[in-house]
Amino acid sequence: MARNTKSAAKETRRRILDAAERLFFANGVAQTSLEQIAEEAGVTRGAIYWHFADRVALFRAMLEDVRLPQEDMVEQAAACGNPDPLGLLERVACDSLATLAADEQRQRVYAILLFRCEYLGEMADVLQRQQDADTAMQANLARIFTMARDDGALVPQWSPDVAARVFALMMRGLWVDWLRYGRSFDLVAHGAACVEQLFRSFRRAEPAAAPVEAG
Amino acid sequence: MARNTKSAAKETRRRILDAAERLFFANGVAQTSLEQIAEEAGVTRGAIYWHFADRVALFRAMLEDVRLPQEDMVEQAAACGNPDPLGLLERVACDSLATLAADEQRQRVYAILLFRCEYLGEMADVLQRQQDADTAMQANLARIFTMARDDGALVPQWSPDVAARVFALMMRGLWVDWLRYGRSFDLVAHGAACVEQLFRSFRRAEPAAAPVEAG
DNA sequence: CGATATACATACATCGGTGTATGTAAAGAG
DNA sequence: CTCTTTACATACACCGATGTATGTATATCG
């Protein structure tokens, strides 16, 4: 068939990636054939094999387009010399929820990573990327909580490491639950309530106000 | 071939289930053929098709043997009329960590559910079971935290629902992280530190002691 | 304005997996 | 002691998916 111009080829590549994303999300990675992806993208398998070595390469390319929520938080929280570390983190946390809630591509890709693929053999390093992101987030959070403790902002009942861990576990739980169970609750509102009350327990007690209810 | 006695047939069934569990865990559900399972179990595919209708039925049967950590916690925490609900929960939480850490079958099956299968089509109700377990756990925890609030055991900074949610998210995060990342930390010790400090924030402040470090 | 590389489509060979049909020897019922 | 049923093993037919080889029309470059 007619050879496409270079920009048209780029668009073909995009269409393949988008089609793969939709089908991986809808049918799972293992249950999606290159034939189906080609059809969804309006090309043939020849085009896919031209742009990508095989299924795994296609899958990897799809992932490279998206940042994981963990990576997002690390980047956002990098601003360290802040006078109010806990306040910064609290805002970053809520931002991360809003970012995920607003970006459907991110939702699909993260959901694929969480529930629609099996991490084995050639996919092992995909898991590794998530572990690296988690580790980086954990280290970064621990650093910030340590700053908060040194500033006297963190109550002594919480050790910086454990506070960082519980916070990270809660955030990931919120992301995962929301995606796993069909986005059946208001991620931003409900998540904000969790974030706020947890951070309230991190801080020295203020004149007590009534707790915020979940969304 | 020679027909086995009824008890021998039961054992064959067990061997098939065990083989499936090991291979699903090692290679993923989609990447494991019935041929492989048969070989691992020392039988032929004929035996598998005799005992199970197909792969999905085999997978389901494998799951039925095991209780999920969530289901475990719900059962453990059912004892409600306790004078110290928060103390009860704290113990139940640590028990659940110890139970998971001690039972390799449980670890494999839960890991399969989390990272080694794709929830689609005929597998949708498998996800449903997890969602039901999570929902039940959530409801149960909320009830207990409400009791704690009514007893004055829960500080007013935490609403019972949000406290239950954060606690549940943390617990699931601990289970998942431990399994996902190759059990690379001491689940019981590290988990206990998280549980303890979170529950300390739930309770009215005692004469402050130094926080416990993570394991 | 050829020559060549590009961007695919088409065609083919292969293979592993599934489901089912059939064989069969022993267990259990009467 | 037979007859039937059980508990498998064996054999077969049938895709569907993969990978590769090949065709081919057109950009693009010198």
What does this structure look like?
- 2 copies of one chain form a homodimer.
- Chain A has helices at residues 6-27, 34-41, 45-51, 55-64, 69-76, 85-102, 104-115, 124-150, 160-180, 187-202.
- Chain A is mainly alpha-helical.
- The relative contact order of chain A is 0.11.
- The model of chain A has no long low-confidence stretch (mean pLDDT 91).
- Chain A is elongated and about 65 Å long.
- Chains A and B meet through α8, α9 and α10 of A and α8, α9 and α10 of B.
- The first copy, chain A, binds a DNA duplex (30 and 30 nucleotides) through α1 and α3.
Element layout with pairings:
Two copies of one chain form a homodimer.
Chain A: H1 6-27, H2 34-41, H3 45-51, H4 55-64, H5 69-76, H6 85-102, H7 104-115, H8 124-150, H9 160-180, H10 187-202
Chain A binds a DNA duplex (30 and 30 nucleotides) through residues 1-6, 8-9, 12, 33-35, 43-47, 49-51, 54-55.
